[in-house]
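Before relying on records like the one below, remember that each one covers exactly one chain. Contacts with other chains, cofactors or solvent are not represented anywhere in the record.
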Amino acid sequence: MRVIKNEIPQPLEQWAKSISLRSPKVMTSLYDTNAILVGTYSKPMEFGQKQIHAYFVDFLNKENLKCEITSNIIQHFGNGAFFICSGTYSFSFENTKVEARYSICYKRCADGFKIVNQHSSELP
């Protein structure tokens, strides 16, 4: 396992930037067909693209929604086949700013990297 601190890989940067597009279709496209999402404001768990899309329909329905990664640590596994990003981020909308933490697992696919598992929650 190789660990890299304070670097934001392109797939994670794309995820954060895509939030401000407010497009459930775009966000869902970043996830694997059988991905699991434990979102900041989700039910206990969303499984598969249909449920993940429904989560983003609700979550992205906020004016001036933005996301910024504030810290990140990457763990690489299996000769680059998988990597996990863990860290903190903030998202803001309207007059609200939320500080949160995340762990996102990516796997290499034919068309780049897809999220296979994500957990996100507000910082205590």
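The chain has three helices and seven strands.
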